[in-house]
Amino acid sequence: MAKQEDDFKKVISHAKEYGFIFPSSEIYDGLSAVYDYGQNGAELKNNIKQYWWKAMTQLNENIVGIDAAILMHPTTWKASGHVDAFNDPLIDNKDSKKRFRADVLIEDYCAKLEDKALKEIAKAKKRFGEAFDEAQFVSTNPKVLGYREKQKEILQRMAKSLDNNDLADVKALIEELEIADPDTGSKNWTDVRQFNLMFGTKLGASAENATDLYLRPETAQGIFVNFLNVQKTSRHKLPFGIAQIGKAFRNEIVARQFIFRMREFEQMEMQFFVPPGTELQFYEMWKEKRYKWHLALGLGEENYKFHDHEKLAHYANAAADIEFKFPFGFKELEGIHSRTDFDLSAHEKFSGRKIQYFDPERNESYVPYVVETSIGLDRMFLALFSHCLKDEVLEDGSSRTVLSLPPALAPVKAAILPLVKKDGLPEFAERIFNDLKYDFNIIFEEKDSIGKRYRRQDAIGTPFCITVDHDSLKDFTVTLRERDTMKQERVPVENLRQIIDKKVSFRNLLSKI
To answer: Do the beta carbons of residue 167 and residue 192 sit within 8 Å?
Structure first.
């Protein structure tokens, strides 16, 4: 646990030191759970968006993208259920005065049970070596079976209690499991109560005539209210999807773990509209497609797992999360949900407008069903950043910190480095910079020794360093250094564009999906 905390602190420190993420309004001591993306963070974030957007809209002929407004008619949130049901179960510790989500406390307890099961498996694997049959061990070992059966019982009970709004039983479960405040160890809890997560605001020139609005808590509703507009203007037949990237806002009870859970965050969502009765087939299809999207990044299959929901949202008939192994354990990264026809039917009812699709093959009109994929952009950023940040000990005994991001997502694709600030080297390097800047995000740097500059570029994840020396003026070649291997080779200046493009093109990622 201590190592996990230390590793996570390194992630947060590195993010700030190298211009990825800063506390918001830091000169005024910051704002709780709100962060700003710095110069390198903004580039990485935009590249993640591009990878998702291209995978959705460019690789799928039947998916288009929109950009809906953050402010929406207030009835939208009545229809969606957010006004009445967008709550989290809140619990306070009487001694520490700290506030927690009751369901997260229980889920964290279950995560510790899973950790115990995994430790038993790891010990057995070490004991039996190559002869170890993991599947048989997992299905027969009493300790592993016991830990996982207990997990299942706890989560099923919690899901049932939350579905029935039996908050007294949620508190009883916390007390029975002897769950303590993780910071102080106190078990002195208040009753559990519901807490609505939406931020309210006003629209209007005067306070008396202002309309009560909400900052959207999700981007999906902007897609649903535009279903007819998009379907009619794009002329797509079902099945087809609408994708969107945008900000959402939730007044989280406990916003924590850096950018993992924030009050202002960004979502990448796609709603896939399908004929009724086919939704579970497409649900399975999108689980597989989204899993491949993640694996194409090369972060390791062992760092992902599916988690099927015990407690379904009021609109869903199937739901699963793709979880990622963050520095603080496996947590939700993306959700895939079969939302049935809940959303479009609700908006049809509340708006009084007919929101249906005429299916020429079935020769009937109906309200489409929806399969949703929803991923937190900030969480995706954290998954990439935390996994790719590494400390390496080199052959000569020295060390380096390297951010081994997939090259297509790296904030800076190449750094142009004149060896010294004289003898015409900066001018020659600037000519290379001015030629390549139209194709790639590159930087020019001449301060400090070449070794220090290499280390700085490693730390921000730059795939290539291009060093201009005195020989460059004679033979028009430069030294090209590759980030991950640190291999250096002499290449002609005229070949740089082709070499860099081959490495950093989005094609490399998209072709693996």
So the answer is: yes
